[in-house]
Structures
1.
Amino acid sequence: MAAIDTVIRVSERTPKLGLAQWALRVPLAAILINQGISKVYGGMLANAEAYGFPVWQYVLATFTDFAAPAALILGGLSWHWTGDVLTRLGGLGIFASTVAVITVIYAGGGWQGWQFQGLIAAGGLFFLLRGNDAPNRI
């Protein structure tokens, strides 16, 4: 419960966004959906083999690229506590998948060029910690 209490304390201290949150939600969702489409294009099995990943990891990454943006957008449309949970799950998915990409692509041969993915990860982390401003948090 200490982790949940910490997330709630951090969430309460972050600024309220109102409609401005959509300026971050929509581009994050669009970028992740585009990444998911690029993973499907050409065949998932062939792409997984080309990158040297097990198929289950590639399928999980592709699923996350579609599920996380859906959760982020649907979470923003609801001010019930379920919207808060969806927003945080979407943020978690975006953060985790993008950190995995940064680790796999850039950790082996230098860190030049990771800024775009770093910004996406920061957006996901923001929604993971901030949530939805739901009045009835868990």
2.
Amino acid sequence: MENSFRIPKGWFVSGDAPAKYEMGLDTTVTYENRPCVTIKARPDPTEFATLTQSFKSDAYHGKRLRFSVAVRSADVENCAALWMRVGGVDGKMLAFDNMLHRQITGTNEWAHHAIVLDVAEDAENIGFGILLSLNGQVWMADVHLDVVGPDVP
């Protein structure tokens, strides 16, 4: 199936069933007059799909990072969520948050969400993104990845 959205530079498609979703830049929905990225379920979606970025963590060793974005959702049946992962040697997971206990469901106007993780000295890479599981559509805008102090929970 062809994707009607263009994947923005620096982002890639991932997840358990990315072919069951359309993902990329949606120029019809804006946030502060800028287009947004979206994940939209195709008919009969399964599992989940995610728009992702990943990079080497060297510059962030020993620091605390906050991944924050504005999210809008429409008819999200199961869940939508931000996620962030700090990985180590041989793919070992050092830190992970996928908003398990604060998932986005239903239809919601723009709201800011954030994930904060500590980056271990032996971290190799950092990945982050937004995911959609089953029916609905989610939009993401105003993406920030910031170093924050230990006072930020």
3.
Amino acid sequence: YMSSLLKELRYSLYLIVHPFKGFWEIKHERKGSLRTAVLWLILYVLTTVLSGFCTAYLFNPGGGVNFNVYQSVATTLCLFFLWCIASWCLTSLYDGEGKFIDIVKATAYALIPLVLIHVILVPLSYALILKEASFYTMLVNIGYVWMAFLLFSGTLVTHQYTFGKTVLMIIFIILGMCMIAYIALLFFNLIQQMSGFVVTFWSELKLR
């Protein structure tokens, strides 16, 4: 079990520099698995928390003791699953060949550069001075651009889309995420109002 997991983790590092071949082999030749994808997602959440807590104050003035772990974890997981759900809904309508599990795997593997960047930047933040902040920012931007490219590659390969259709689909997915989030907020607001009404009604009933 451990040997196969280590093999999949090593292949993950190959995938981030050979994304088109890597995503194809993960989907069709089973070079990766859901367990490895979940592991990378967990590592991303942990390194995000580590970055929020441990990055030097110069590059993270709102972190340290002021860092909200629960908000960070919730935001990360919500964005991840919003992307996966919106992607699955839209690609199912527009001839996408990927299943939901394929989308989850591709999305989790796309997070690998950010995991690596966080691991590098936390200790590096204590070695850099203010004049070198542009170097720190450059590395952060490289991580996000790399992640975006992997997300694009994963969407293209997983669903067998053309370049143009992939770009269009990603725009639709982002709009779909906003729509799902808006509907969810409306739903929770409605639930909150209903529960408030029930509590008030019950209190009035007890007084009578």
4.
Amino acid sequence: MDYLDIIITCAIGYVAGTLQPAFYLGKLKGIDIREHGSKNAGAANTSMLLGKALGIFTGLIDILKATFAVWLVGYLQAAGYIHPETDVVYSLLPFLAGAIAVLGHNYPFYMRFNGGKGTACLVGMMLAIDPIFGLIIVTQILITMYLTKYIVL
């Protein structure tokens, strides 16, 4: 097993995950979003505090950053820059990148490890790994939102 490939994968995932649009949008509006509402830097809290448009924008970025991490590692494997998917362990590298992106979203170092809840990131990871399963998760979240009137239950 080549540990360097795993380290590179984790670094890609974590760096992608630490991009926090909720935090930056809150700063642009003059607040620390982690001190208001649900007290986390995610799309749901952004929607409550800064409006639906910025909440949707934040959610899309949170989804895309995990999707990007999964796709980038998959591309690096296909291009031969990191170990190809010939071994079972290495076929999980894109999944690892997505999972670490969720951790980067939840625990960004520059925010004293206090980020979001990771729901949108998890959706992005699942959409990248298995689009059908990802769409099932999105459908379940939308149905839950509609029935309970909560953004994330």
